[in-house]
From TrEMBL:
Source organism superkingdom: Bacteria
UniProt name for this protein: GntR family transcriptional regulator, arabinose operon transcriptional repressor
Family annotation (InterPro entries): AraR_ligand_bind_dom, LacI/GalR-like_sensor, Peripla_BP_I, Tscrpt_reg_HTH_GntR, WH-like_DNA-bd_sf, WH_DNA-bd_sf
Domain HTH gntR-type: from-to ranges: 3-71
Classification via PANTHER family: ARABINOSE METABOLISM TRANSCRIPTIONAL REPRESSOR, LACI-RELATED TRANSCRIPTIONAL REPRESSOR
GO terms assigned for molecular function: DNA-binding transcription factor activity; transcription cis-regulatory region binding
Keyword Transcription regulation: yes
SUPFAM superfamilies according to UniProt: Periplasmic binding protein-like I, Winged helix' DNA-binding domain
Keywords, alphabetical: DNA-binding, Transcription, Transcription regulation
Length: 367
């Protein structure tokens, strides 16, 4: 049986490395030059190079080229595998709990953690992806940056997939890529939050949602579906959009909404941070929560019970459990070739506290 072309090319390049035709740290010919040299397709060359990268004979530096590495000798003595974790933020809100869940599970299996954050900035995402690839991490858990927008870094993700590095997306995924993910049921969360207010007799329900992350789009979809099922109309002036760069404008938008000719009796907030900002703005106008306006939030963070007199009704987020499950998924992907790399979706559940009020005469607000 004939050897596949890419394996023959791989062996030939490896021999050139071992015999110092290609010396340590030197740049090998480009994929196009190798294609012409071996008279094969570029895909075949990429297969050969990918195998040599896996074995540690080569290292790819994005934007520069492919270089000879001594990683093959290091890999044999490497005891601990490293998982790269890239989240939008690290030290605030729900992220420490998620990272703690990842770290505990990785440590339990003698894996190390390489951590980075993007601040939801695509340039920072690119830099962190380059660092992770240069470090030759064994797997990646990545929270997408501005997942609702076209991403300029898709080529890095395609390289990750081509090199068969296990990859799990956190909270969302890029529609352009077929990558496994671990998320909340955000569409379901939008429905549940809206239905809660509908069940309490609210007919004028607003939503504050994020336009540059897909979680915001999915929650908006759930909101629209719940209104439609209840026979309610979607009103443009009851939807406040924000993104990473203009979230500071939210208080003014809330002020305009509450003082409009069509004020809501209930508001669904993208997360607990936005909910607290909304409460502060509404109270500054002399209105009460939930007496005048009910608030439903997402994430059940520490903020949900931190505001004096108002405990948020909010969609629960599994936080540490999500981190643990993400780590288990990536470990299984590395250690078990038969592992089914299917997505994980946590069901949405509502925690009812005292930030929502019934407008039905027979109902009372939760104390």
């Amino acid at each position: 049986m004939n050897q596949p072309k890419y394996l023959a090319i791989k062996d030939d390049i490896k021999n050139k490395i071992v015999s110092n035709v290609y010396t340590l740290d030197s740049k090998i010919p480009s994929e196009m030059d190798l294609r012409d040299e071996y008279n094969v397709s570029r895909h075949t060359i990429r297969q050969a190079i990918s195998e040599l990268v896996k074995e540690g004979y080569l290292i790819k530096i994005h934007g520069s080229g492919t270089y000879v590495s001594d990683g093959h000798s290091k890999k044999s003595s490497k005891k601990m595998k490293t998982i790269g974790v890239v989240t939008t933020y690290l030290s605030d809100y729900i992220f420490p709990s998620i990272i703690r869940g990842i770290e505990k599970e990785l440590s339990r299996h003698q894996y190390s953690l390489m951590l980075a954050s993007t601040q939801n900035n695509v340039e920072s995402e690119r830099e962190n992806l380059e660092k992770m690839l240069e470090h030759e991490v064994d797997g990646l858990i990545i929270e997408p940056t501005k997942s609702n927008l076209l991403n300029p870094n898709l080529n890095y993700y395609l390289d990750i997939l081509e090199e068969e590095i296990p990859l799990l997306m956190l909270h969302a995924s890029y529609e352009e890529l077929d990558t496994p993910f671990i998320t909340m049921d955000d569409e379901g969360a939008g429905r549940i939050a809206t239905n809660h207010l509908l069940d309490l007799g609210h007919e004028k329900i607003a939503i504050i949602t994020k336009s540059d992350d897909s979680q915001g789009k999915k929650r908006l979809k759930g909101y629209i579906e719940a209104l439609h099922t209840a026979g309610m109309s979607y009103e443009n002036d009851h939807v406040i959009f924000f993104d990473t760069e203009n979230r500071h404008e939210i208080p003014k938008k809330i002020n305009d909404l509450v003082n409009s000719d069509n004020p809501p009796t209930g508001i669904i907030c993208y997360n607990d941070q936005i909910a607290i900002s909304a409460i502060q703005q509404i109270q500054s106008l002399g209105l009460k929560i939930p007496g005048d306006i009910s608030i439903v939030s997402h994430d059940d963070s520490f903020l949900s019970t931190s505001f004096p007199g108002v405990a948020l009704t909010t969609i629960e987020h599994p936080k540490e459990e999500m981190g643990k499950r993400a780590a288990q998924w990536i470990i299984n992907s590395i250690e078990n070739p038969e592992f089914n790399r299917k997505p994980i979706v946590f069901p949405s559940e509502l925690i009812i506290r005292n930030s929502t009020k019934s407008l039905n005469k027979t109902e009372k607000v939760v104390e």
